[in-house]
Amino acid sequence: MDIEENQNHQPGNREENQEQEVVTKVTGMYKDWFLDYASYVILERAVPNIEDGFKPVHRRIMQAMKDLDDGRYNKVANIVGHTMQYHPHGDASIADAMVQLGQKDLLIDTQGNWGNILTGDRAAASRYIEARLSKFALEVVFNPKVTHWQASYDGRRKEPITLPVKFPLLLAQGVEGIAVGLSTKILPHNFIELIEASIKHLQGKRFKLYPDFPTAGIMDVSNYNDGLRGGKIRVRAKINQLNKNTLVINEIPFSTTTSTLIDSILKANDKGKIKIKSIEDNTAENVEILVHLPGNISPDKTIDALYAFTNCEVSISPLSCVIIDNKPHFLGISEILRLSTDHTVELLKKELEIKLNELQEQWHFASLERIFIENRIYRDIEEEETWEGVIKAIDKGLKPHIKHLKRAITEEDIVRLTEIRIKRISKFDIDKAQQKIEALEGDIAQVKHHLEHLIEYAIDYFKTIKENHSKGKERLTEIRIFDDIEATKVVIRNTKLYVNRKEGFIGTSLKKDEYVTDCSDIDDIICFTEDGMMKVVKVDSKVFIGKNIIHVAVFKKKDKRTIYNLIYRDGNGGKSYIKRFAVTSITRDREYSVGKGKAGTKVFYFSENPNGEAEIVSVYLRQIGNIKKLKFDLDFADQMIKGRNAKGNLVTKHAIKKIELKEEGVSTLKPRKIWFDDTVRRLNVEGRGELLGEFKANDRLLLVTQEGLTTTIKPELTKRFDDEYIVIEQWNPKKPLTAVYWEGEKERYYVKRFLIENPEKEELIITEHPKSYLELFSTDFIPQLEIVYRKQRNKEQKPNDIINLETFISVKGIKAQGNQLTTESVTQLNLLEPIEPEIEEEQVVETEEEENKSDFNESENNSSTTENDGQKGTQGSLFD
Description:
By secondary structure, this protein is an alpha+beta fold. Among the domains are: 30-189 and 196-202, Topoisomerase II, domain 5; 232-316, Gyrase A, domain 2 (2-Layer Sandwich); 494-555, no CATH class; 558-669, no CATH class; 672-832, no CATH class. 24% of the residues lie in helices and 28% in strands. It contains 17 helices and 50 strands. It starts with a strand and ends in a 48-residue tail after the last strand.
């Protein structure tokens, strides 16, 4: 090792005898060692080769299993020991890699306890479990004739450089590895979809590939980015509501186990993010985790909270890196599929060329053998005494008969003729020999045809693999677009918030002061003070807001329906104003004024209205001067809703004594439009999916399930709707509902029309017989039903009937059985276009608040005035 020392004086005021800094340059062997080590780890340990999709350890395991293969199971310990002839590492790493291969259930046929990818249980010791190559592996992985070999690490054996895999195995199994300076993470993809994508590529068609996980679950691939760096997928557990107090998890996200999932749920419960009663793991062959909830907890919100705060939803970032020509390359999944498919075509071509050469050699020798025996050339060697004479005699005898051969005769060919036994010559059948030659000619023609139509041959090859090996390999992971879950909306509020109004403090530790509301540690709190200041702060044990707090509440970001009604004095001796505003966004910890920020501002009246209610208040003035009218009423409904920075409308120039609530208000907001997004099975107000209608405060949704359960609910945006719901629409209490169902006991179709009498109760609208089922359901005023009858033997086909169901049966109670539809055998029932009622229901649309532009005008005696400041307030900045 060469060490070069450079001693340089450092700048600055130093004494001459001060020790100088030494810079040492490391050269020699160390100079390249790190790069050599990094290259070794990348190429020989961590990153797979694109040609066969294997890391070196997996490739060596497969070769060892091929060496030992006799159709029977081998002890894994024996396979591991055999693999050590190729792999220069310990038996533990080989055994772990083999278990990973076996758990993917593609290349290895396993026997014994190989662990459980669902629970995370480890496999038994390698001496207790057995394995053999699967039929799929034997068919697509090995072919010594096209394999390139290299010396093993000790030079005693030959190992494959790459195995001739004729399948996109890398994408089917997936792989993860960490090298020096880079890593790779290729997610597993569906077996059948890979074959179909390969076929589409060969046909020149476009294709899309997305991961598929053995743990199933639900997946959002919106940002997959073809598996390249920067991409991300979100995977969720499949959670269903077993009953009103129990959730069941049947599928888990990839990269988690039932143990880690349950641990994350318990931690979230301990931190107060969610609230559960108990959790039960019944997982065996399939996942079953039961989450028991307390009686007062919403199952829908709990499902969202599980996704927001636990491993029930995980994000996975793929990073597709492979070895090509001994160098790492970052390629997309689609490009890997194309290269793998093209490599498969090349391997198929090589195999066909080898097979053609072998067939042509067989045809050549079969033709020589026939000439040799049929023309009795073997008799020409009877007089020869030397080996050279024998060779020459046979060569001379063959020459008149070899014009049709495809190549010249070699000495090796003649030697093979001399090895034919007398017994075979004596039993030689010319016809059979000719049939064999013709069969070989047919095989040669077929192979040549395959070579001329190589793409078609490769497509047929992939179709054959699909036909023989795709059973049980259907997609497990459901692809769906996820709805974004706001943590603040689903978190369990298990902390109590208190306020000391006079001193101006709020917090969770002020237990001796006034209780305000339940909250969580991720909530924001909005506060108003008597001097007109507004502030939003994070929940904490104790926070100073400002003296004389008049309002404290949990702040809902982007909430346009919570309206604040306010009457305030703008500064000392200033005029009084009235205003209505919403707070949708704000900068946390920043103080805002409800007026113009003047000293002496005072709030006389304040109310928070969750649905835009507008009350009537009575204003009392002080007796100063010659004011004639000391009391008058104000209706907040006469005021427009503006931005929080708006000054408001003038109430009075005189001093206000007090303001009292005279009459509770009703909502002045327009009905809220609600849509149903069938993709994520959720309600929304952003216009995604089907418009259900415009909902007022007391409007409800009608829900009907396939099992015949009917109920109504308030339209909560957090509600999840399973696929079992066949009707999700706005409920009109005055509109009769019509159901056609099969009555299991009487084995007849029945019709009933009814109104929902108890909106809060879920009721069964068909009979409880196990064979009863709901056939059709209509919310039309006058539905029409078409009956298609079954043709009876030896009878004419009965024409279809069209029935007006309004006249067929009157509206009865929801528990009524209804009327029997027909006694005839029915093939099909169809709902037709309904009949429009003669008198259409009158629809009343609530006037929008923005259209109420009447101002409170100043009275003749100047006892009170209103002024419109003409300014629309600007929204504050978003949270940091």
